[in-house]
Known about the structure:
There is one protein chain. The protein has 410 residues and is an alpha+beta fold. 34% of the residues lie in helices and 27% in strands. The protein has two domains: 269 residues, 3-Layer(bba) Sandwich (FAD/NAD(P)-binding domain); 95 residues, 2-Layer Sandwich (D-Amino Acid Oxidase, Chain A, domain 2), CATH 3.30.9. Helix 1 links the parallel strand 1 and strand 2. It starts with 12 loop residues before the first strand and ends in an 8-residue tail after the last helix. Bound molecules: flavin-adenine dinucleotide.
Amino acid sequence: MDSQIKTETEAEVIVIGGGAAGCSTAIYLARRGRRVILLEGREDRPPQLSDLHSGEVLSPGSQLELDRLGLDLNQAQSGDYLVRWKLQEWASLRLHWPGGRETFDRLPPGVAFWQINRGNFYRALRQLARAEGVQVCEGVRVINLLRDSAGRCLGVSARAAGEAPYELKAPVTVDASGRNSVVLARLGLRQPEPHFRRAAYLLFFSELAGAPEPGVWQQYWLRNTTTLRGSYLAPRLYRFSFETSLAERNRWLAKFGRLTAHELFLAALAEQLPQEARRFREATRLPHLLAFAPVGFRVAQITHDGLLMVGDASGYLDPSTGQGIEFALRLGRLAARSIEEAFAVNRFERPAFDRYLRERQDEVLPIMRRLRLFLMGSQSNRLLDVVGGVALARRAAMRQIIKTSPAIID
Length: 410
Ligand SMILES: Cc1cc2nc3c(=O)[nH]c(=O)nc-3n(C[C@H](O)[C@H](O)[C@H](O)COP(=O)(O)OP(=O)(O)OC[C@H]3O[C@@H](n4cnc5c(N)ncnc54)[C@H](O)[C@@H]3O)c2cc1C
């Protein structure tokens, strides 16, 4: 923990989670003069390979949000991949369509996706939060919400490693603790997302025959909505994500039996893309592999008396489009604005946060709807092949993905 927790009366807002959503909310609130305490469950520790998480892609919209937030983007570039957060940019796509066609397209001039080391990215965001006056406590895990008999949120109970739990109270609590939010679990708010019951595997390699070139995103569409996506992140660092539906994953498990995630990846690839399977079998894999299932979910209610849900904790679609971080940053900005208004009238019941719901609807939901349509369309290999065969259609699809709706506030 990098700072002592002050007494409960000093915090006006408690933010659970020091990721994209939590830091964005906390920074915007601190800039407006609010006393914010941010609790991040992970301890800070020396950089290591697992900090890569899934080596996320930052959409052009995320880059705009970071600029708006005031993160120094120049600092991101220097040093080894274990110490910097921005790893590479890509602005070209090499796509392998289901029917066997291969295409190569460039994004419009000036547009690029970035790939990051997420651990370092979050360190940089927390550093900015501290500089803006947020009290950032690392290594402090929230274990429950404090609620009164009417269900109103009063704060949290939290615990630092090896210490006794304690209570922390504030008029507003923001849950930005991500997909595995303790609040979602405690309040039973998580609901299935029927169209995106997906599983994802992330693998990193240091040596791979035919590895992706710098600046190029490589993607294969396989059978039954499975995709294989690869990119170069840094010298001797290649990232591949293998995503599929839960139904297809269950079929693999039934067919191949109980295998490790890596063995399952190799077996499924050998079945679906035999011409590529060999190079992955012979590749040198780094000892960092992530497996997620299921990925998509909805949240029944995202504002409550004294409590808002932000980022993944307010629902999550699909990792395929690389916009989860963009949504998290945007929602943090919108939540901060709504919380500030609640303080202005000193009312913290659920209706005080209606503005957050309205602006979320106006600013974020249209992009989510577009992505939902895009993702549903991409579940038909026939449709994919039609799009893949027409350069204009490919460009139109890409424009939909990179389009960022304008921000409501600056
Ligand atoms: C396989 C996969 C690949 C993805 N790829 C991309 C991509 O390429 N691009 C993209 O934009 N998005 C991607 N996403 C989505 C993206 O990771 C999320 O949308 C984004 O991280 C959401 O940010 P967040 O701040 O809401 O949550 P998180 O990033 O999950 O941050 C939550 C924070 O809260 C902390 N925390 C959790 N529980 C507690 C607790 N009880 N107490 C205190 N702290 C706690 C965590 O340690 C963490 O720091 C991917 C997701 C998956 C699953």
